[in-house]
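Q: What structure does this chain adopt?
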Amino acid sequence: MNAVSPAFPWATVGGPNGWQNLNARRLFKEVVVRSHGDEPLASATQERGIVARDDLDIQVWNPESDTSNYKRIEPGQFVISLRSFQGGFEISRITGILSPAYTTLHPLRPDLNEFYRWFFKSVPFISAVNSVASGIRQGKAIKFEDFASLSLPVPPSKDAGIISAYLDRETGRIDALVERLERLIALLTEKRQAVISEAVTKGLNPDAPMKDSGIDWLGEVPAHWEVKRLKHIVVPKGVQIGPFGQFLREHTVDASTTKLIGQENVLSNDFAKGDRWINDDQYEGVPRYWVVEGDILFTRKGSIGKCSVVPPMMGRAIIDSDTIRVRLDETIAATAFVRLALTQSTMSEVQTRLNARGAILSGVNSETLGNMVLCLPPLAEQVDLMTELNSQLQEFASAIGRVEKMITASKERRSALISAAVTGQIPVAEMIPDTQPEDAA
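A:
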């Protein structure tokens, strides 16, 4: 048995009888075969291995029309990708061509392919790869020599087959459970949105008198509610897009008294992010762009459903050109109610679909936002409605949180199971399914 560095977890375990530890260069070789010109483009994915780009559900940008220098990949070969320091190596089931930035590994023991398919995705292996390829988080690719310096566990071929079949079976069960749990979250999320939509368009009193809203997609609303556009429930110039042009190019990264608020703050709901500042004179000259506590900020890029509310103790700040500030008239509109109606009900989705520019507004402007229709109960009722609705939403949040914990625990169990199996910590005999027939009744 070859000497193995104790830095690698599978070496310290010792391994079952009959297992070896060999340098990776004795088990794999790097191959470079250029494209023959007729192979399909392929991509490395952490979930599905190497797949044809045409089979991906997303568009992959290919800046190089000339693929003559691309590398050919064959079924049964492995690939070191640009993200292998995060998710391990990928196996190919297809013939195709990959970017020359990838490293192709040809197995010298193809009978162990399915074992290494699992081993290369295990936490101990990924940790070992990171330990010998310092600096990869800053963009350094994992080279073959980095990998070749590692010692790998080598089980007998029969054991390897049992282990891979066991992991296929057990992880399949876990994956099926996770899929069911994720569907449950989707159903809970859908139900949550339906509850919100009902509350902000019909109220919480099913016996309330109703009236025709005059809008086909909205239908009836409570008789004492009003149907208003957003621009009619804000203060003067209450819907304001940020400044364009030279003004924003004159900001500094030195912390000053006035901060520029933009998309990164809105999307993350974190107003401490960012390092763009302007001086006092600039701030005093643009009062129309100031933000204050309670302002609702929308990102101008993407869908209307992305917004944040300016928190207390924000300090002096202005919005940038990718942000729209909404300042409500607090005598008729409650911030929490309006935010919920605009961002978490189906109202904005319906109105966006009806908008001539399509379901995703690549450049939401103040006019588009200001024309959004809302159903508005009296102010006191808005506050009461939110109190009651928040109680229901908390129940949804708790239920979704419990399911998310189950998903996390299942994925952790899956990862631990893989690591234990490929490092010999689970006796092979325990991995063989019981196929004994049941006793006759």
